[in-house]
Amino acid sequence: MSDKQQIMKLNPLTVSILFALPMTAQAANIQMVNGSNIASTNGVPVININQANSNGISHNIYDRLNVGREGVIFNNSQNGANTVLAGQIAGNANLASGTASVILNEVTSRNASTLNGMMEVAGDKAQLIIANPNGITCNDCGFINSESVTLTTGTPDLVNGELKGYSVNGGIITTNGLTSDSPTAILARSIVVNGDIYADQQLDLIAGNNYVDTNNNVTGAAQATGSRNTYSIDVAKLGGMYSDKINLVSTENGVGVRNQGNIVGQVGGIKIDANGRLLNNSAQITAVGDVAIKTNGVLENTSGQINSNGSIIVDTNKYSVSNNKTGNIEANNAVQINSGRIDNTNGYIAGNSAVQINTNNNELVNNGKGTNVGISGGDVVLNTAKLNNYNGQIQGDNVSTNSNYLYNLNGQIQAQNDLNITSTGALDNTNGLLSAVNGGVDIVAVNSTLYNKKTDTSPQGSTGIVAGNGGISISVANLENYAGYIQTEGDVDLAVSHHINNTYGSIYADGDIDIQSKVLTNNQSNIIADQNVNIDLKGDISNYLSYISAKNGDVSIGATNINNNGGVITGENIDLDAMYHIYNAPGLISANKALTVNAGHSVQNLSSEHLTASYGKYLGLTDQDGGMYGKDGVTINTLTLNNTKGKIIAEQGDITIESSHGLYNDLGTIDANGDIDIQSKFLTGNQSKIIADQNVNINLQGDMTNYLSYVTAKNGDVSINGANINNNGGVITGTNIDIDADYHLYNAPGLIAASNELTVNAGHSVQNLSSEHFSTSYGKHLGLTDQNGGMYGRNGIVINSLNLNNTKGHIISENAAIKIDLGHDLHNDYGLISSGNGGLVPNRLVAGATTIQAGHKISNNYGTIYSTGDMTLDSDVFYMAGGGSTIQGNATGFIVADGALSINVRKGDVHNYGWIVGREKLTMNVSGYLKNLNTIYSDRDADLTAGNAIYNFQNILSGNSLNLTSGSYIKNDGTIYSDGHTSIDATYIYNTSYGSILGGGQGLDLNDTQLMGYGLVFGL
């Protein structure tokens, strides 16, 4: 505080300076009415005041009371006193009964008073009162040795000798400089301050038509007389007030206070109460203590200063406050403003401990940035209709705003701790900053839109919504975060009842992100949490060219539709739940642990390999395929899964898919390190892969297509169930393979290879065709160059069907048995059915047995049926033509069992154009005729029975005994031979000239058979 602002203490030097000033035009003019008690000492008038009454009041009445530059002395001394103004003076004879405690000087005429000099109380201190209803002008006047000073235009109210107060009806008091060494009160209808007023301890200015008691309290109104000034209290540019405590009261309605100078208080503070407006433009109101301002009109502090080392309280009764153009309202403690509209454009409102502003449903304008601009405080609380912080700044330890509309375009609202914003209308933070450095941000506007857009080129983080570890909580109707930025060291909680537009936007949290909304548009944007991301929507989510990521936590998304086209979703566990559709075409969904996908209608996981080519430059990816990845497992539940050109990968776990309407896997990949379980209506696979390190289980209500595709269980089993299973051009491999088709299995050509056992069940037919064409037709598409198709079960094959068509097909069991049970026909024309090492395919190990049962017909034209063990064939009809396949160097078709061969033809005939070989034993039972045009052979015993005739055009041979039985006759154009005993039982045998019947070493027994013909018979 400057020297001028210090309260003046009178001393001899001060007085000498005052006396050195010119005095010619300012001589004393004092005329008392109630006595001639005026003397003079050393040129200074001395007023011997009247005797004091019982209340200590000396009442002195004047016709004129004008003080010159020399000053005046009010003698309150009984025995004389040494004075500052006149030196030693004599005692006052009027005070024989005692000195006064109150010196009341009242002017009763119509003459105003001019006080041009110092006024001193000689002797004992007393309250000095000058009352003149006609007005008082103080020109560098002052007061010495007074207990207190009162200047008033009011009429003193004396009741029974006691001063009760003053009735102020009119009058003006003008001060052009005033100095007092005691508390000073100025009471008038109007007060004009053109110079400085210095008062010790306290200064009271009370203006208006009032009744004022002796404690300077307005206790009622007085009848006004005369006209009023524009301002009840008017402080000029050169005017000022300086005291420890200053009280300004203006009670007249609509007439306020204007300060163009300085009002400076010390510890006692400043209190201003105006029943009108207060103008402090380019002026100063400053106190060490508190400042309290109450008006019934506007407060104008344009370029003004209202400062306190304590607190500032402003109440304008809902009238506006102008604090613009470098206006300053600043307190070391708190600032409280209760007003109407506030204009703080380029102004400064600051309270170190707190700022509380209530505009009573009016606007707060806080425009402008820079040093000492804006609103700043400890705890900042703003209640306003519209908070206009355009290009403005609001700062505090904690900041709370409550408004109907928040306009923070290019503005800054920053809290060191917590920021709380509540609005019933829109919140516009376009290019603005809402920040809580160490705490959290809480925004509530449940029926409105929050605009957090960024349209300028400012660096990321300088705008948006930013919080410390307290997190960010936003509850609004709509969130427009176009190119916006939301970031916190804690959690983000978004409760948005309608739409979140995060296009080009960023939402970051070191903790969790929780989003509740109807629709989320997340295009070319980021939603990234160090912990969990939870998104719960009533409508759709679009994650186009965007990231949703939980770095160390889980991702959960629930929506009507989830569109991740060109997007990336990553997390530890990922749970996606869509009422209708999930689109990932192409997109990347990657879980470090488990991925769970549920969609009410469909999952579209398309074109995974196109992710980098199509969108990599937007996502910052250079070599990353799309698809769905769950390191510890993938679970998908939907009506329809479309994985065309897609990838579903579980690096360490299982894949479970339930798609009750269908699964499209054309050019797609489903790959699991564990099991794969697929439950669907149908499965289409064109150039696709279903590969599991463990088991593959496919359970379908409809058809499966595995064209140019793989179904592989590397170290486990394959189980496939469906209506029709089409493996044309496909590959199915596993340890054990179990295929169950309600109708048809097509493997024409295809490869089904089990390293252990193969089991096939088909309700109607198995089509295993053209196995040798597999590599030439499809190998280049499958990466196979020297691999026949067919059905392979290294340790056994079981086929159950109505029909088996193995034309040009291969059915091979390297180590164990083959069992074929057919309700109708087996077609093995040009085909190969082999169990054990027959030399037809490499790497055979141990012999096996073959059982084939056909309900109607076995056709083996140019085909091969081979077993290194026993073989059983059972059918109604049997056909076999020669030629075709190769075994043991013999170029002919055949049925060969290295063990026993049993052929049972229940209803029809046998037509044999190839080889029928049972090395251990051969048994044939034919209900019709047996026609042999090639070779029937056994290394040991052979037992052939036909219900009708037997026609032998080539060879029936046995290494041991041979039993040949016909229900009719035998015609032999070939050779019938055994090394052992030969027995023939028929009606007759016609042994043509081309025929030979050779009995071998143990003879020939024709039984009762009649021998006819000219052929060779040996052994009878």
TrEMBL record:
It holds the Pfam family Fil_haemagg. InterPro entries: CdiA_FHA1_rpt, FhaB/CdiA-like_TPS, Filamentous_hemagglutn_rpt, Pectin_lyas_fold, Pectin_lyase_fold/virulence. The keyword Signal applies. Keywords: Signal. Residues 1-27 form the signal peptide. Residues 41-161 form the Filamentous haemagglutinin FhaB/tRNA nuclease CdiA-like TPS domain. SMART domains: Haemagg_act. The keyword rRNA-binding does not apply. This is Filamentous haemagglutinin FhaB/tRNA nuclease CdiA-like TPS domain-containing protein. It comes from Acinetobacter equi.
